[in-house]
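As agreed, record minuted below.
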Amino acid sequence: MRHQRYQRYQRLFVAALTLFLLAAPAAGAAAQGSAQGEEVPRGPTWWERALQALLDGIQFGVIIAITAVGLSLIFGTIHLINFAHGELVTIGATFAFFLNVSPAGPGWHLVFAALAATALGAVVGAAIDRGVWRPLRARGTGLINMFIVTIGLSLLLRHVVLVLYGTRPGSYAQYDIQRAIDLGPVGITPRDLTVTLLSVATLLAVALLLGRTRIGTAIRAVSGNRDLAEASGIDVKRVVLVVWMLAGALAALGGVFFGLVEIVTWDMGFKLLLLMFAGVILGGLGSAYGAMVGSLVIGIVAQMSTLWFPVDLQYAWALLALIVVLLVRPQGILGRAERVG
């Protein structure tokens, strides 16, 4: 009888000791907080996290839009799916890195390096058109063959950048580490805010170029009906050259912005290419305004999906949104339905 009572007391003592050990850390933290007179900081609510993800999605979407507009214009004017467009993004980012950071470079400030990279993107775009695509079009090369050439050109340019830049990721010298500015329930660094505003301003400038200038009217005419535009006296070759220069400049500028908010790598343009295609297709093939809207949707969906799913799957959910929209509206958000046959 005494032995059973001893076992009962022993079990009660073990249970009490276990509860004390489990409660001790929480009691100690509460005592420390009360001793210091400070409240335990609470984490952000779901709505605050949703607003932050929305802001991040807008920033990501406008960067995708800058790079995707040129891709859409190229398809609209010559109906070419340019698989090498991502390498123009990489060329812009890595050239700005060379001018800004590399010991072999001049050490320019990032603003001047970005302007030079944008100019280089326009030159590379013009050189590709004059050296590759114009001769192929003159020979009557089919679109499928030209698409295969874009894949080969993409591999060539990507590995040239790999040899010149290397595999080590890098960041620019300026605006690297900054403290976020609190804007109510959300926060954003001055760098990211500036990149977002500059991206929006660039998109508005492109919209004004296409809608209010003679060259923009010519681009829209060639995109609508190439033969009719040529019969109306429009120099189609000059328009296509301008489109390639504009596409190269926008891709290079978008590469600098993307490398500034993320990181500069030798294959960053290739990683962004799938989202560019998604934005162009979602907005409507050949529509520059559609590419802007579609890219913005892709960026927002990619960032908002992180509220429920792992970050590694954010691009997958963006592509799922593309599929859902195309099932409802096959021509895209701002695309025009065409009759087949």
The longest strand covers residues 181-183. The two ends are 98 Å apart (CA to CA).
